[in-house]
Design brief:
single chain, 356 residues, alpha/beta, six-stranded parallel β-sheet, 10 helices, 32% helix
Protein backbone atom coordinates (compact mmCIF):
# COMPACT_ATOMS: atom_id res chain seq x y z
CA UNK A 1 0.00 0.00 0.00
CA UNK A 2 1.09 3.56 -0.71
CA UNK A 3 -0.50 6.39 1.28
CA UNK A 4 -0.57 9.88 -0.23
CA UNK A 5 -0.78 12.47 2.54
CA UNK A 6 0.06 12.21 6.23
CA UNK A 7 -2.04 14.96 7.77
CA UNK A 8 -5.13 14.31 9.86
CA UNK A 9 -6.74 11.80 7.49
CA UNK A 10 -3.55 9.92 6.69
CA UNK A 11 -2.00 9.71 10.15
CA UNK A 12 -5.11 9.33 12.34
CA UNK A 13 -7.37 7.21 10.14
CA UNK A 14 -5.78 5.50 7.16
CA UNK A 15 -2.30 4.46 8.31
CA UNK A 16 -3.42 2.87 11.61
CA UNK A 17 -6.35 1.07 10.00
CA UNK A 18 -4.18 -0.25 7.16
CA UNK A 19 -1.62 -1.49 9.68
CA UNK A 20 -4.36 -3.25 11.64
CA UNK A 21 -5.67 -5.16 8.62
CA UNK A 22 -4.40 -8.68 8.06
CA UNK A 23 -2.73 -9.05 4.69
CA UNK A 24 -2.12 -5.34 4.13
CA UNK A 25 1.24 -3.62 4.58
CA UNK A 26 1.96 0.09 4.52
CA UNK A 27 4.97 0.36 2.20
CA UNK A 28 5.27 4.03 1.22
CA UNK A 29 4.02 7.35 2.56
CA UNK A 30 4.01 10.36 0.27
CA UNK A 31 4.94 13.46 2.25
CA UNK A 32 7.81 15.91 1.97
CA UNK A 33 7.33 17.15 5.54
CA UNK A 34 10.26 15.95 7.73
CA UNK A 35 8.20 16.07 10.93
CA UNK A 36 5.47 13.91 9.39
CA UNK A 37 8.07 11.50 8.05
CA UNK A 38 9.55 11.16 11.54
CA UNK A 39 6.06 10.64 13.00
CA UNK A 40 5.27 7.88 10.52
CA UNK A 41 8.63 6.18 10.97
CA UNK A 42 8.24 6.21 14.74
CA UNK A 43 4.96 4.33 14.51
CA UNK A 44 5.55 2.01 11.56
CA UNK A 45 9.28 1.35 11.64
CA UNK A 46 12.42 2.11 9.67
CA UNK A 47 11.37 -0.12 6.76
CA UNK A 48 8.67 2.38 5.81
CA UNK A 49 9.60 4.21 2.62
CA UNK A 50 8.85 7.82 1.71
CA UNK A 51 8.27 9.74 -1.50
CA UNK A 52 8.27 13.50 -1.82
CA UNK A 53 5.64 13.52 -4.57
CA UNK A 54 3.01 11.13 -5.88
CA UNK A 55 4.73 11.08 -9.28
CA UNK A 56 7.44 8.89 -7.74
CA UNK A 57 4.84 6.16 -7.19
CA UNK A 58 3.84 5.83 -10.82
CA UNK A 59 7.41 4.89 -11.79
CA UNK A 60 7.24 1.81 -9.55
CA UNK A 61 3.56 0.98 -9.81
CA UNK A 62 4.41 -2.71 -10.26
CA UNK A 63 5.65 -2.79 -6.65
CA UNK A 64 2.29 -1.67 -5.23
CA UNK A 65 -1.18 -3.19 -4.91
CA UNK A 66 -3.15 -0.09 -3.86
CA UNK A 67 -2.84 3.67 -3.54
CA UNK A 68 -4.71 5.50 -0.77
CA UNK A 69 -5.36 9.20 -1.36
CA UNK A 70 -5.63 11.16 1.89
CA UNK A 71 -4.42 14.52 0.60
CA UNK A 72 -6.44 17.79 0.47
CA UNK A 73 -9.79 17.57 -1.31
CA UNK A 74 -8.76 19.60 -4.35
CA UNK A 75 -6.12 16.99 -5.27
CA UNK A 76 -8.38 13.92 -5.17
CA UNK A 77 -9.50 13.81 -8.80
CA UNK A 78 -6.09 14.43 -10.35
CA UNK A 79 -4.31 11.91 -8.11
CA UNK A 80 -6.98 9.23 -8.52
CA UNK A 81 -6.85 9.69 -12.29
CA UNK A 82 -3.06 9.35 -12.34
CA UNK A 83 -3.14 6.26 -10.11
CA UNK A 84 -5.77 4.51 -12.23
CA UNK A 85 -3.88 5.32 -15.43
CA UNK A 86 -0.78 3.81 -13.81
CA UNK A 87 -2.77 0.60 -13.34
CA UNK A 88 -3.25 0.89 -9.58
CA UNK A 89 -6.42 0.29 -7.56
CA UNK A 90 -7.38 3.32 -5.47
CA UNK A 91 -9.01 4.29 -2.19
CA UNK A 92 -9.96 7.98 -1.98
CA UNK A 93 -10.93 9.80 1.19
CA UNK A 94 -14.30 11.52 1.06
CA UNK A 95 -15.35 13.58 -0.80
CA UNK A 96 -13.98 11.76 -3.83
CA UNK A 97 -14.48 14.88 -5.94
CA UNK A 98 -16.10 18.29 -5.99
CA UNK A 99 -18.86 17.24 -8.37
CA UNK A 100 -20.89 14.13 -9.09
CA UNK A 101 -19.84 14.34 -12.74
CA UNK A 102 -16.15 14.07 -11.78
CA UNK A 103 -16.92 11.12 -9.50
CA UNK A 104 -18.72 9.29 -12.32
CA UNK A 105 -15.85 9.99 -14.72
CA UNK A 106 -13.43 8.40 -12.24
CA UNK A 107 -15.79 5.44 -11.80
CA UNK A 108 -15.94 4.94 -15.56
CA UNK A 109 -12.14 5.09 -15.83
CA UNK A 110 -11.79 2.47 -13.09
CA UNK A 111 -14.35 0.25 -14.81
CA UNK A 112 -12.56 0.63 -18.12
CA UNK A 113 -9.26 -0.40 -16.53
CA UNK A 114 -10.82 -3.16 -14.44
CA UNK A 115 -9.53 -1.60 -11.22
CA UNK A 116 -10.97 -1.11 -7.74
CA UNK A 117 -11.98 2.47 -6.90
CA UNK A 118 -13.34 2.80 -3.39
CA UNK A 119 -14.31 5.79 -1.24
CA UNK A 120 -13.47 5.98 2.46
CA UNK A 121 -16.88 6.58 4.05
CA UNK A 122 -15.77 5.28 7.42
CA UNK A 123 -18.86 6.45 9.30
CA UNK A 124 -20.89 3.63 7.80
CA UNK A 125 -19.07 1.67 10.51
CA UNK A 126 -19.89 4.03 13.40
CA UNK A 127 -21.38 2.25 16.39
CA UNK A 128 -24.63 4.25 16.40
CA UNK A 129 -25.15 3.91 12.65
CA UNK A 130 -24.62 0.13 12.77
CA UNK A 131 -27.14 -0.05 15.61
CA UNK A 132 -29.72 2.05 13.77
CA UNK A 133 -29.28 -0.02 10.60
CA UNK A 134 -30.11 -3.16 12.57
CA UNK A 135 -33.13 -1.58 14.27
CA UNK A 136 -34.53 -0.48 10.90
CA UNK A 137 -33.81 -3.82 9.22
CA UNK A 138 -35.43 -5.72 12.10
CA UNK A 139 -38.56 -3.55 11.94
CA UNK A 140 -38.15 -2.34 15.54
CA UNK A 141 -39.34 1.17 14.62
CA UNK A 142 -42.11 0.17 12.18
CA UNK A 143 -42.18 2.28 9.02
CA UNK A 144 -39.64 5.07 9.43
CA UNK A 145 -41.13 8.49 8.72
CA UNK A 146 -38.44 10.95 9.74
CA UNK A 147 -34.70 10.66 10.29
CA UNK A 148 -32.80 13.38 12.14
CA UNK A 149 -29.01 13.25 12.11
CA UNK A 150 -26.73 15.79 13.76
CA UNK A 151 -22.97 16.12 13.51
CA UNK A 152 -22.51 19.19 15.66
CA UNK A 153 -19.53 20.78 17.38
CA UNK A 154 -18.84 23.88 19.44
CA UNK A 155 -15.84 25.57 17.85
CA UNK A 156 -16.51 29.32 18.11
CA UNK A 157 -13.04 30.19 16.77
CA UNK A 158 -12.09 29.08 13.24
CA UNK A 159 -8.95 26.95 13.02
CA UNK A 160 -8.00 28.11 9.55
CA UNK A 161 -6.47 25.90 6.88
CA UNK A 162 -7.90 24.61 3.62
CA UNK A 163 -10.90 22.91 5.27
CA UNK A 164 -12.23 26.34 6.26
CA UNK A 165 -11.16 28.13 3.10
CA UNK A 166 -13.70 30.08 1.08
CA UNK A 167 -11.88 29.26 -2.18
CA UNK A 168 -14.22 26.96 -4.18
CA UNK A 169 -11.20 25.06 -5.54
CA UNK A 170 -10.38 23.85 -2.02
CA UNK A 171 -13.80 22.12 -1.64
CA UNK A 172 -13.87 23.23 1.99
CA UNK A 173 -16.70 23.97 4.39
CA UNK A 174 -18.89 21.66 6.44
CA UNK A 175 -21.30 20.85 3.60
CA UNK A 176 -18.63 18.78 1.86
CA UNK A 177 -16.84 17.70 5.05
CA UNK A 178 -19.30 16.45 7.66
CA UNK A 179 -22.11 16.73 5.11
CA UNK A 180 -20.49 13.95 3.09
CA UNK A 181 -20.99 11.64 6.08
CA UNK A 182 -24.54 12.47 7.10
CA UNK A 183 -25.82 12.44 3.51
CA UNK A 184 -24.12 9.11 2.77
CA UNK A 185 -25.65 7.57 5.90
CA UNK A 186 -29.14 8.84 5.01
CA UNK A 187 -28.91 7.39 1.48
CA UNK A 188 -27.65 4.03 2.78
CA UNK A 189 -30.53 3.82 5.24
CA UNK A 190 -33.43 5.13 3.18
CA UNK A 191 -32.48 5.08 -0.48
CA UNK A 192 -32.22 7.67 -3.26
CA UNK A 193 -33.13 11.32 -2.82
CA UNK A 194 -36.05 12.82 -4.68
CA UNK A 195 -35.67 16.45 -3.60
CA UNK A 196 -33.33 18.55 -1.48
CA UNK A 197 -33.74 21.76 0.50
CA UNK A 198 -30.86 23.37 2.41
CA UNK A 199 -29.86 26.35 4.51
CA UNK A 200 -26.17 27.21 4.81
CA UNK A 201 -24.53 30.02 6.77
CA UNK A 202 -21.15 31.42 7.72
CA UNK A 203 -21.63 32.32 11.39
CA UNK A 204 -18.22 32.83 12.96
CA UNK A 205 -16.26 36.09 12.65
CA UNK A 206 -13.35 35.53 10.30
CA UNK A 207 -14.76 32.31 8.84
CA UNK A 208 -14.77 32.00 5.04
CA UNK A 209 -16.68 28.74 4.46
CA UNK A 210 -20.03 27.39 5.65
CA UNK A 211 -19.96 26.42 9.32
CA UNK A 212 -23.68 25.95 10.05
CA UNK A 213 -25.69 23.97 7.49
CA UNK A 214 -29.05 22.16 7.41
CA UNK A 215 -30.08 19.69 4.68
CA UNK A 216 -33.58 18.27 4.20
CA UNK A 217 -33.91 15.25 1.91
CA UNK A 218 -37.15 13.76 0.71
CA UNK A 219 -36.30 10.19 -0.26
CA UNK A 220 -38.04 8.31 -3.05
CA UNK A 221 -39.12 5.88 -0.30
CA UNK A 222 -41.12 8.66 1.38
CA UNK A 223 -38.78 9.06 4.37
CA UNK A 224 -37.72 12.61 5.20
CA UNK A 225 -34.17 13.14 6.45
CA UNK A 226 -33.25 16.27 8.39
CA UNK A 227 -29.47 16.60 8.59
CA UNK A 228 -27.48 19.15 10.59
CA UNK A 229 -23.74 19.85 10.41
CA UNK A 230 -22.36 22.69 12.47
CA UNK A 231 -19.30 24.08 14.23
CA UNK A 232 -21.39 26.68 16.04
CA UNK A 233 -23.68 24.59 18.26
CA UNK A 234 -23.45 25.74 21.88
CA UNK A 235 -25.81 22.96 23.04
CA UNK A 236 -25.51 19.67 21.20
CA UNK A 237 -28.61 17.78 20.07
CA UNK A 238 -29.00 14.01 19.72
CA UNK A 239 -26.73 12.36 17.16
CA UNK A 240 -29.76 10.43 15.84
CA UNK A 241 -33.49 10.85 16.35
CA UNK A 242 -35.33 8.37 14.15
CA UNK A 243 -39.13 8.32 14.24
CA UNK A 244 -41.23 5.44 12.95
CA UNK A 245 -44.84 4.28 12.97
CA UNK A 246 -44.40 2.16 16.12
CA UNK A 247 -41.36 3.57 17.95
CA UNK A 248 -38.48 6.01 17.83
CA UNK A 249 -34.75 5.70 18.49
CA UNK A 250 -32.80 8.51 20.14
CA UNK A 251 -29.03 8.38 20.55
CA UNK A 252 -26.66 10.99 21.99
CA UNK A 253 -22.90 11.21 21.68
CA UNK A 254 -20.34 10.36 18.99
CA UNK A 255 -18.83 7.02 18.10
CA UNK A 256 -15.62 6.63 20.16
CA UNK A 257 -13.31 5.41 17.40
CA UNK A 258 -12.01 8.75 16.13
CA UNK A 259 -11.18 9.93 19.64
CA UNK A 260 -9.43 6.63 20.33
CA UNK A 261 -7.34 6.88 17.15
CA UNK A 262 -6.38 10.46 17.99
CA UNK A 263 -5.24 9.33 21.45
CA UNK A 264 -2.99 6.67 19.96
CA UNK A 265 -5.23 3.66 20.58
CA UNK A 266 -5.21 1.04 17.84
CA UNK A 267 -7.78 -1.59 16.79
CA UNK A 268 -5.32 -4.33 17.69
CA UNK A 269 -2.71 -4.10 20.40
CA UNK A 270 -2.22 -1.79 23.35
CA UNK A 271 -4.76 0.88 24.27
CA UNK A 272 -2.73 3.79 25.73
CA UNK A 273 -5.90 5.58 26.82
CA UNK A 274 -6.82 2.65 29.02
CA UNK A 275 -10.19 2.17 27.33
CA UNK A 276 -11.72 -1.26 26.82
CA UNK A 277 -12.47 -3.26 23.69
CA UNK A 278 -12.28 -1.46 20.35
CA UNK A 279 -15.35 0.54 19.34
CA UNK A 280 -17.34 -0.34 22.48
CA UNK A 281 -19.06 2.41 24.45
CA UNK A 282 -20.32 2.34 28.06
CA UNK A 283 -23.91 1.45 28.83
CA UNK A 284 -24.54 5.02 29.95
CA UNK A 285 -24.22 6.10 26.29
CA UNK A 286 -26.68 3.61 24.83
CA UNK A 287 -29.63 4.98 22.88
CA UNK A 288 -33.26 4.31 23.74
CA UNK A 289 -36.21 2.93 21.80
CA UNK A 290 -39.75 3.82 22.79
CA UNK A 291 -42.95 5.70 22.01
CA UNK A 292 -44.61 8.62 23.78
CA UNK A 293 -41.73 8.98 26.24
CA UNK A 294 -38.74 11.27 26.66
CA UNK A 295 -35.36 9.53 26.55
CA UNK A 296 -33.86 12.47 28.48
CA UNK A 297 -36.02 11.59 31.49
CA UNK A 298 -35.38 7.86 31.28
CA UNK A 299 -38.23 6.93 28.96
CA UNK A 300 -37.97 4.10 26.49
CA UNK A 301 -35.87 0.96 26.58
CA UNK A 302 -32.05 1.13 26.45
CA UNK A 303 -30.65 -0.60 23.38
CA UNK A 304 -27.08 -1.89 23.47
CA UNK A 305 -24.95 -0.04 20.93
CA UNK A 306 -23.16 -2.36 18.53
CA UNK A 307 -19.37 -1.90 18.53
CA UNK A 308 -17.96 0.55 16.02
CA UNK A 309 -15.88 -1.20 13.37
CA UNK A 310 -13.71 1.08 11.21
CA UNK A 311 -11.31 -1.84 10.57
CA UNK A 312 -14.10 -3.54 8.60
CA UNK A 313 -13.62 -1.04 5.76
CA UNK A 314 -10.03 -2.03 4.94
CA UNK A 315 -10.79 -5.69 5.56
CA UNK A 316 -13.44 -5.37 2.84
CA UNK A 317 -10.99 -3.56 0.55
CA UNK A 318 -8.48 -6.37 1.02
CA UNK A 319 -11.15 -8.95 0.17
CA UNK A 320 -12.16 -7.00 -2.94
CA UNK A 321 -8.54 -6.85 -4.10
CA UNK A 322 -8.22 -10.62 -3.67
CA UNK A 323 -11.47 -11.21 -5.54
CA UNK A 324 -13.21 -12.72 -2.51
CA UNK A 325 -15.45 -9.72 -1.71
CA UNK A 326 -17.03 -6.61 -3.15
CA UNK A 327 -16.12 -2.94 -3.05
CA UNK A 328 -17.38 -1.62 0.32
CA UNK A 329 -18.15 1.89 -1.03
CA UNK A 330 -18.24 2.46 -4.77
CA UNK A 331 -17.59 5.72 -6.58
CA UNK A 332 -21.12 5.52 -7.95
CA UNK A 333 -22.49 5.61 -4.40
CA UNK A 334 -20.26 8.58 -3.66
CA UNK A 335 -21.55 10.29 -6.81
CA UNK A 336 -25.14 9.89 -5.58
CA UNK A 337 -24.18 11.63 -2.34
CA UNK A 338 -22.47 14.39 -4.34
CA UNK A 339 -25.71 14.86 -6.31
CA UNK A 340 -27.36 15.70 -2.98
CA UNK A 341 -24.50 17.97 -1.84
CA UNK A 342 -24.57 19.90 -5.11
CA UNK A 343 -28.35 20.23 -4.86
CA UNK A 344 -27.99 21.43 -1.26
CA UNK A 345 -25.47 24.08 -2.28
CA UNK A 346 -27.78 25.32 -5.02
CA UNK A 347 -30.80 25.24 -2.72
CA UNK A 348 -29.04 27.29 -0.04
CA UNK A 349 -27.77 29.78 -2.58
CA UNK A 350 -31.06 30.29 -4.42
CA UNK A 351 -33.54 29.55 -1.57
CA UNK A 352 -35.30 26.86 -3.60
CA UNK A 353 -36.11 23.17 -3.32
CA UNK A 354 -34.08 21.20 -5.87
CA UNK A 355 -35.34 18.06 -7.61
CA UNK A 356 -32.53 15.52 -7.78
Amino acid sequence: MALIGYGLAGSVFHAPLIAATEGLALDTVVTSNPERQAQARAEFGDELRFAATADELWDRADELDLVVIASPNKTHVALATAALKAGLPVVVDKPIAGTAAEARELAALADDRGLLLSVFQNRRWDNDFRTLQKLVADGELGDVWRFESRFERWRPQPKGGWRESGDPEEIGGLLYDLGSHVVDQALVLFGPAKSVYAESDIRRPGAAADDDTFIAITHASGVRSHLYVSATTAQLGPRFRTLGSTAGYVKYGLDPQEAALREGDRPSGEQPSGEGAWGVEPESMWGRVGSGESPQTGGGTPVETLPGDYPAYYAAVAAALRGTGTNPVSAYEAAAALDVLEAARRSARDSVTVIV
